[in-house]
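Workshop exercise sheet. Pairs work together: one partner reads the sequence aloud, the other fills in the structure field after running the prediction. Swap roles for the next sheet.
Pair: D.N. / O.F.
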Amino acid sequence: MKRIFLLLLLFGFIVSPAYAGNVTYQASMTGIECNGCKKSISRSIGKLSGVKTIRISKINDKRHRLTVVTDGTNSLSRSDVTKALGKNAPHYKLASWSRVN
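Structure field:
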C-alpha cells in the first residue's frame, strides 16, 4: 500500500496541501496614515495561518495596496483579514479584496 501511495504521489495523482504553492491576494485600503499603521496591519495579518509575506504600498494620498502572499494551504478571505485587524478594523477599511493567482 505504501508503495502505491508513493507512486501516485510521484506521478502527481495525489496533491498534498504542502505542495499547493503560493497564493497572492491584493486589496485596496484606506485609513493608513503612517509607517506605524503599516506595522500594525502587518503584525495583525501576519498572525493568520499560512501568511508568508505582506507588502503595503501607496497608490495615492488616500489609498494603499495591500499584497498578501500565503503558502496556499488555506484560503484567505476578506472577513479573515478584517477579523485579524480586530479593534483597528473600522479605521483600516478594505475597499477591495481579490485573489491574484
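Discussion prompt: The radius of gyration is 17 Å. What would you look at next?
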